[in-house]
Amino acid sequence: MPYDDLRSFLDTLEKEGQLLRIPDEVLPEPDIAAAANAAGRIGEGAPALWFDRVKGFTDARIAMNVHGSWRNHALALGMPKETSPREQVEEFARRWDAFPVPPERRADAPWQENTVTGGDVDLFAVLPLFRLNDGDGGFYLDKAAVVSRDPADPDHFGKQNLGTYRMEVIGRDRLALQPVPVHDIAQHLRTAEERGEDLPVAITLGNDPVIPIVAGMPLRYDQSEYEMAGALRGAPMPIATAPHTGLDVPWGAEVVIEGVVESRVRQIEGPFGEFTGHYSGGRRMPVIRIERISYRSRPVFESLYLGMPWTECDYLVGPNTSVPLLKQLRAEFPEVRAVNAMYTHGLLVIISTAKRYGGFAKAVGMRAMTTPHGLGYVSQVILVDEDVDPFDLPQVMWAQSAKVNPREDVLVLPNLSVVELAPASQPAGVTSKMIIDATTPVAPDVRGNFGTPVKDLPETAAWAARLRTLLATR
Amino acid sequence: MTAPTASPAVCPRCSDEAVRTVAHSPVPDVWEVLQCARCLYMWRTTEPARRTSPGAYPERFRMTAEDIATALEVPAVPPLAAR
Ligand SMILES: Cc1cc2nc3c(=O)[nH]c(=O)nc-3n(C[C@H](O)[C@H](O)[C@H](O)COP(=O)(O)O)c2cc1C
Ligand SMILES: [Zn+2]
């Protein structure tokens, strides 16, 4: 049964022992961020955190770390909480095949209960805002989905984009926005600004648990995140029409903020502790003017901590970055078995592939760098054989240590594109990229002494089952 | 108004004096949210000194008028399309 809103998912997390209510009164800073930061430091299976006693607030309800462990990520997709990361990625890839699943338009969205407009708009009156990291320039909305349309093709449902872009609160009715140039909203904004027009946006906060997964997923420009949500949910995604902009927003959102990105305006923004484990600098970035806020009574404010990995952000963009790359590579190279793009939104990717002929694996690595997401992210690719599990890092390290002859198997390609947030890029936005081919050479690539690999004994699989049974019935 | 919510005269990050109050705590007199009009830094008066006090604010996060004026534009404003 898919979740239509955040609240029903929080109920499930609580029943599964995966939601921890913080009983004591806490300070908005540094407690909420520090607790969510700590959730990533206490080992496997961390719960979501719930705060409702926050100093100075009368009515705060804050949910953190909702996707912040493999257990919670599995539950978000309706899988048993013990499902391993690799199994979660495989099931995700299976569900992808149902794409596109058309959404279902519903009336009476709960966020229609309350509305503020014009001069009455005050984010501080609706949301219990707080800071995450010391060097952050202010308070951020960092787990919101932003909806916009292509100004040149506004009726194209697939080109309507829903994406996670962090926004800094720079006034009661103003937000600064970071559209990374390779992302869809940057394309929408560019078209609007070339025409000298504002870009209407709807920002939805506190969504059902599949929305953050599709909003942070590198889909093709014309692929609809709502139609992907339907595939992942196994049921149509419920959407509703935002009243001020007419944009399509999740029916179950806690809060819907509508306004425009002001055309051709830039204001100082940041820094912000980023997914790279480093702060962005202070840059001059686009500004959103808020014109209307709709919200459920007693709204839940959902946010996430990010900083030095791993944090919630890494769980959230692990599987959803791996699967699109797997699908895009497999479309041309059916030999590709599995893709692990869970490191820093795919700055480093591990790919397991069979080899068509000598040199093939290196070509797969180059192709990963030229996928839409690869252009801005994939900077290091490790290729492993089809019988190496890219999610099993000790196996990957074995393959690299035993199969790589550095002079021939490590390729460094200079001056390629990467997000300007990548800390090692120089100048920002340009980097060299590396392919490490840790596959076994095949003809006509006859290098090395790989003719006599030691394989698991034919009887080993049966023995593994036998050992498991003995252990379970001990 | 009680002492802890009194506004400091200067921004901890850029030392500008144009500081305004953008929000008051719903429970009266617990905190205020302040903002610098120049660098837009925003902070709550109950945050640790390393975020609120000009003396304790880390050097590496400070900003000058020069930094603001020369900050990179991301994304750059495109040329207007001829029409
Ligand atoms: C917590 C979080 C914050 C993010 N912040 C930004 C951001 O500020 N700007 C941006 O361009 N991408 C940001 N992303 C990444 C995009 O959401 C992600 O790359 C997505 O695939 C973009 O998809 P699109 O190009 O289809 O819109 C963020 C992702 C997450 C999970
Ligand atoms: Zn300042």
UniProtKB/TrEMBL annotation, chain A:
Its EC number is 4.1.1.-. Residues 10-90 form the 3-octaprenyl-4-hydroxybenzoate carboxy-lyase-like N-terminal domain. Residues 106-309 form the 3-octaprenyl-4-hydroxybenzoate carboxy-lyase-like Rift-related domain. One of its GO terms (molecular function) is metal ion binding. Its cofactor is prenylated FMN; Mn(2+). Mn(2+) binds at N161, H183, E225. Keywords: Aromatic hydrocarbons catabolism, Decarboxylase, Detoxification, Flavoprotein, FMN, Lyase, Manganese, Metal-binding. The active site is at E274. Pfam families: UbiD, UbiD_C, UbiD_N. Residues 315-438 form the 3-octaprenyl-4-hydroxybenzoate carboxy-lyase-like C-terminal domain. The keyword Lyase applies. Binds 1 prenylated FMN per subunit. It is an enzyme of class 4 (lyase). One of its GO terms (cellular component) is cytosol. InterPro entries: BsdC (IPR032902), PAD_UbiD-like (IPR053417), UbiD (IPR002830), UbiD-like_C (IPR049381), UbiD-like_N (IPR049383), UbiD_Rift_dom (IPR048304). The keyword Chaperone does not apply. GO terms for biological process: response to toxic substance; ubiquinone biosynthetic process. Involved in the non-oxidative decarboxylation and detoxification of phenolic derivatives. HAMAP family: UbiD_YclC (MF_01985). Belongs to the UbiD family. YclC subfamily. This is Phenolic acid decarboxylase.
UniProtKB/TrEMBL annotation, chain B:
It comes from the Bacteria. Pfam families: EcdD_BsdD_detox (PF26358). InterPro entries: VdcD-like. This is 4-hydroxybenzoate decarboxylase. It comes from Streptomyces griseoviridis.
